[in-house]
């Protein structure tokens, strides 16, 4: 399976407007002037990938999650190309969810299903944690 992105770049502002195969827009900026940077987009991709996995697995396990939020932050090397050295992912789930079901869902995403996690874990230490809030 392959993915295809076409991106146009404004050489004056360094803004990148990309489109996926099906036309979905992705905008990135050199800094936070009008959109996320490519590095922020990478962290957002990790958040989206693992969150979709975990939510899907929780549904299959018939867990009663009523809200789900994920926070991702990372440390980068001091020298260029300033790759991530450590990334922390906190899953915050509300509802009638068994702690072991949530823990296992996160583990499956991190070790088996999330392609973004697999790629990033090759160069950085990824740590997942969770906070379960019972309704």
Question: How far apart lie the N and C ends?
Answer: 41 Å
Order of helices and strands: EEEHEEHHE
**Using only CA atoms, what is the Rg?**
17 Å
> What summary fits the major beta sheet?
3 strands, antiparallel
Low confidence ranges:
none
How many helical elements?
A: 3
Fraction of residues in β-strands: 35-45%
Q: How many strands?
A: 6
Report the average pLDDT across residues: 94
Helix content: 25-40%
Topology summary:
Layout: E1 5-9, E2 16-20, E3 25-28, H1 38-60, E4 64-76, E5 84-96, H2 99-113, H3 115-121, E6 125-133
Parallel strand pairs: 5-6
Antiparallel strand pairs: 1-2, 2-3, 4-5
Helix pairs in contact: 1-2
Descriptive overview:
The chain is of the alpha+beta class. It has helices at residues 38-60, 99-113, 115-121, and strands at residues 5-9, 16-20, 25-28, 64-76, 84-96, 125-133. The protein has a three-stranded antiparallel β-sheet with strand order 1-2-3, with no helix packed on it. The radius of gyration is 17 Å and the shape is globular. The termini are far apart. The mean pLDDT is 94.
